[in-house]
Protein 1
Amino acid sequence: MKPKLLVARPIFQSVIDSLSEKFEVTSNQSDQAWTPDAWQQAIASHDAALTTGSDPINALVLGAQPRLKIAANMAVGFNNFDVPAMTTLGVIASNTPDVLTETTADFGFALIMATARRMTESEHYLRAGLWKQWRYDMFAGAEVHGSTLGILGMGRIGQAIARRGALGFGMKVFYHNRSPLDAATENECKATYVDKETLLKTADHLVLVLPYSAASHHSIGSKEIAQMKPTATLVNIARGGIVDDAALALALKNKQIAAAGLDVFEGEPAVHPDLLTLPNVVLTPHIASSTVKTRLAMAQLAADNLVSFFATGHALTPLNQVPAKSAT
Ligand code: DGY
C-alpha cells in the first residue's frame, strides 16, 4: 500500500504526477482555505504532508499520537513548524535550503533598488496621468552604488546580497548576525561585522534576512528605527513579525526614515492599513523566491525529501532527527 500524502496547497502538476507514482496523493489544487478543524483532520489521516510556510504543524495539529511521519516544507523558512514538538512526537521536518538563495537575493536587491529609486511611487504618478514635464528633482531618490549596505542576518541569502552589493554596486557592506562569519567567508562577501547599533546608524540601505523566532520578533521597532538615518531605506524579505509594522508605518509617515520595501508582513496576507496608503513604501506579496525555475526547484526538493524518507528513512534536508519510526 502506498503511504498517504497530503499536498496542502497548489503546486506544479508535474510534481504531483511524479509523487502519485509513490504516494496516494490528496492535493488541495483548488487552494481551498483550511479551517483549523479541517487541517487537523487532514493531517490526522495522512502519513506525510507537503506544506508551505502558511501551513502550521505543531502539537495541537498533530495530536498525541500522530499518524504523520514527515512534513516537508516548500520553503527555507520554517516558522510554521514547531520543530521541538515535531521531534518529541517523532515527526520529521524538512525545508528547502540553497535552491532559492540566489533568486531571493536577486529580489532583495530589486527591492533595495525599487525603494531607493522610488519606482512604484513614480509609476503610480505616471499611470495617474500626472506627468506633465521633466523636472530636476522629480522622484529624486537615494544613491545605491557606492553607498553603505547593512544586512541584518547573514545566512546564505544575506551573503548572496552582500556579494551583489560589494562586487556589483561598489557598496561598503556591514552586517550583524548572532555570530560573525569566519574570515574566509567575510572576505568572499567583502562584508564587515558590526554591532546592531552601528549597523542601524551607518546603513544607507538596511536589508533584513534573519529567520523569524520569538527572539527575532520585532527586531526592528520604533527604538531601532529612531537610530537609523533619516535618509535610510529599510527592506524586509525575511518574515513578517521581524518588523513592528505599525511602528514602521508611523516612522514612514513622519519621514523618520526615507522609505521601505516590504515583501513580508505581520499577519500576512493582511497588511497594516497605514502601509497601504503611504507613498514611500514598496509592497510585494511574499514573492522573493518566485521565479518559475526556483519555485519548481523548491517543490521538487520538498518532494524529494518525502520520497527519500519513505525509501531510506532519511530526508535529504531535515530540520530534526527523530528516533527511528517505521517509514511504511
Ligand atoms: C521561504 O522559502 O522561506 C520563502 O519565504 C517562501 O515562503
Protein 2
Amino acid sequence: MGKATPGVLYLCPTPIGNLEDITLRVLRILKEADYIAAEDTRVTKKLLNHYGINTPLVSYREHNKEKMGRKIVKDILEGKSVALVSDAGTPGISDPGEDLIKKAIDAGIRVVPLPGPSAVICAVSASGLSTSKFAFEGFLPQKATERRKQLEKLRDEKRTIVLYEAPHRLLKCLSDIRDILGERKIAVAREMTKLHEEFFRGTVSEAINRFESTPPRGEIVLVIEGTGLKTEETKKAENLSEQEDINKIILQEVERRIRSGMDKKEAMKAVAKEFSIPKRQLYKVLLENEK
Ligand code: SAM
C-alpha cells in the first residue's frame, strides 16, 4: 500500500456514533499519514484502537489552535502528510478544524477532503422537511439576548434551517424558536447512529411538550421548516385555507348584492363575472354553505 502523499492536509471524517461509519479510504489515510491532528486525542485513540491503527496523534483543539496550527502547517510544508480529525463527523464543520484549513490554504498547501459522516447532512436527510435548500447555522450563541437576535435574523429565512444544540439548552432554544419564528414544523435529531437514536418530528410546541416530559440527553441537531420551502402537506393545508378565504369573499359578495335588491340568480351572475369564476363553481360554494 502506498503512503499518503507528502505535503498534504487530509480532512478525515470519523463516525458520529456508530464505529462502522468510516470509509475504507479514511482508514487507509489514517494509517498512512505521518501523524493525525485530533481535537480530542482520547476519543480518537479509541477509534484507532478499534481499527488497529498506530499512527502518532497530536492534539489540535480550540485552546491550542493558533500555536499548533502554525506547527502543523510548517510540518506539512516540510513534506509531512497530516490527517485532521475532529471529535466526530467532518473536520472543519463547527469545530477548530476550520482555522487550520484556512491556514493551510493560505500557505499554499493542498487540502484533500475525504467524504464521510456529518451530523448536519445526516439530520437533514431524515428530517422529512424540504432538503432542496437549507441554511446551516451551526450553534446559536449561548447568551439568550444574542441567541434571540440571531433567531430574529432567521425569521424570514425561506430555506430549511439547521442548528446544532446542546441538550441542556434545547428547551430554551425551542421556546425562543416558537416566540420568534412562530409555530412551524421541526425535526429534532438526537443521538444519531447511536443506541438511543431518536427523530422527533412535529411542531415546535409538540417538541416542547415531548422534551419537557423527558429532558433530552446526548447530541442534538434541529431541523426547522423555512418560510418558503414548505412540504407538500403544509402547502396543501395553506392552499385549502386560501381557498376557504376566497369562498368566504364570494359568499359575502353574493349576499351584499342580494341585500341591495338583486335576486339570487342575478347576484350570482354578477359575482361570477366580476371575479371571473365559472358559474358552476360559484353554485357549488353556495350549496356547500347552505348544507
Ligand atoms: N464536525 C461535526 C460534524 O460534521 O458533524 C460537528 C461538530 S460539532 C462540535 C458537534 C455537534 O454536532 C453536537 O453538539 C451536535 O449538535 C452535533 N452532533 C454530533 N454528533 C451527533 C449525533 N450523533 N447525533 C446528533 N447530533 C450530533
Protein 3
Amino acid sequence: MKILLLGGGGFIGCHITQKLLQSTDHLVNCYDLFDARLQDSLGHSRFNYIHGDIRHDHTRVEKLIHDADVVVDLIAYANPSLYVSIPLDVFNLNFTENLKITEYCVTHQKRLIQFSTCEVYGKTVASLLQNQLPDHDNPAHAVFQEDNTAFILGPVNKHRWIYSCAKQLLERIIHAYGLEDRLNYTIIRPFNFIGPRIDFLPSEQEGNPRVFSHFLDALKTGEPMKLINGGHQRRTYTYIDDAVDCIVRIVENPNQVCDKEIFNIGSPDNEISIRDLAFKMRCIYKRRWWRGQTELPEPIEVSGETFYGEGYDDSDRRIPDITKAQQLLGWQPRYNLDQTLEYSMGYWFNGEEGTSWIPQFT
Ligand code: NAD
Ligand code: UGA
C-alpha cells in the first residue's frame, strides 16, 4: 500500500513510520515541517520524506493525496499551552487546514484516517454534578464510548476547548461525508500516548510541552514538579508501541472492519492522577537512574492560570472504552503503567539505545 502520513514527522507519526516499514508491503511518504524524529527511516528504500508547510502548499498536498492509497492525517497543534496562547492558530490549523485534506480525499476518493482526540469527550458528568452524585468517583462516570458518550465542554471564555471543538467539528463533517457515501474514513481518538521521542525538554528548548516532558525535565534539573490545580485530575497513559500496534491494524483494515468507524485507542487500566504521576516518576527515576546528580524535585501546586494563562480549563478524568478495537481488530494493550513510564523515561535517561531492553511483543 502507498501510505501518506501528513504530520508523519511528529511523535506518533515517526513511530507509525517505523512500524509500517517493518512490513514489506508498504511504501511510506511522510509530509512534515520537520524530519528530526525520522532519522531511522531516512534512507530506507520504501520511505520518502517531503518537507513542507501544509498552510502554504495546497497544490502539492493535493497531488500527494491523489497519488496515495490511504491518507493518515496527524497534523495539528497538540499541546494545551497553545490552545490557550494561540487559539485562532489552533483552529486554523486543526480545523480549516485539516478540512482541506478531508476535501481532497473526497475529490480523489481516498481513504482517510483522521487523528482526532480523547479531548472531544471533555469533562465527566461527575465533575458537573459532584455533590449530587453519591458515587461521583465511580470510574463508570469517566468511561467514554465512541458511539454513545455525549461531549461536555467548558464555556467559550475557557478557550482551551477550542482544540476539542475544532477536532469535534472536523469529525462531524467527515461523518457527514460518509453518510453521503462520498468518503471512506476512520477516526482515531488517542488517549494520552507517551513514549520515546515525545515532545521536548523545556530546559533545552523554548515552549511548554505536555506533562510527561515537564516532569522528566524536573527530574533532570531538580526544579519542582508543578501540579496544576493540585494535580487531582486523572489520565490513562498508553505506551506508544501499544498505540501503534492498533493504528497499523487500522491502516491495514482487515475485511474493511474500520470503514466509517471511530476508535478510541488507550489503556483503560493505566489510570493515574497527575499528582501520583509525579511521585511515581520520581520513584522510578530514583530506583533506576538517580545517583545523587541533583536534588530529587519536590512537587508543588500551581494554578492553571499561572502556568498556562487565562482561558485554561481541564478534563477531570477520561478512561477509554476499547471494546470496539478489541472486537473488530483483536487488539489489546500490553504495557502496564509502570512499564509505560519506565520505558518512556528510559529513552531520555539512557538514550535511544536504552530502549533495546524493552520487551518486543510480536
Ligand atoms: P506532534 O506535534 O508530535 O505531531 C504533529 C506533527 O504535525 C508535527 O511533526 C508537526 O511538525 C506537524 N505539523 C504541524 N504543523 C504543520 C504544518 N503547518 N505543516 C506540516 N506539518 C505540520 O503531535 P502527536 O502527539 O504526534 O499527535 C499527532 C496527532 O494525534 C495530532 O492530530 C494530535 O492532535 C493527535 N493526538 C495525539 C495525542 C497523543 O497522545 N500524543 C492525543 C490525542 C490526539
Ligand atoms: C493532551 C493534549 O490535549 C493532546 O496532546 C491530546 O489531545 C490529549 O491530551 C492526549 O494526549 O490524549 P492533556 O492530557 O491535558 O491534553 O495534556 P498534558 O499537558 O499532558 O496535561 C495533563 C495534565 O497535567 C493536565 O491536567 C495539566 O494541567 C497537568 N500538568 C501539565 C501538570 O500538572 N503539570 C505540568 O507541568 C503540566
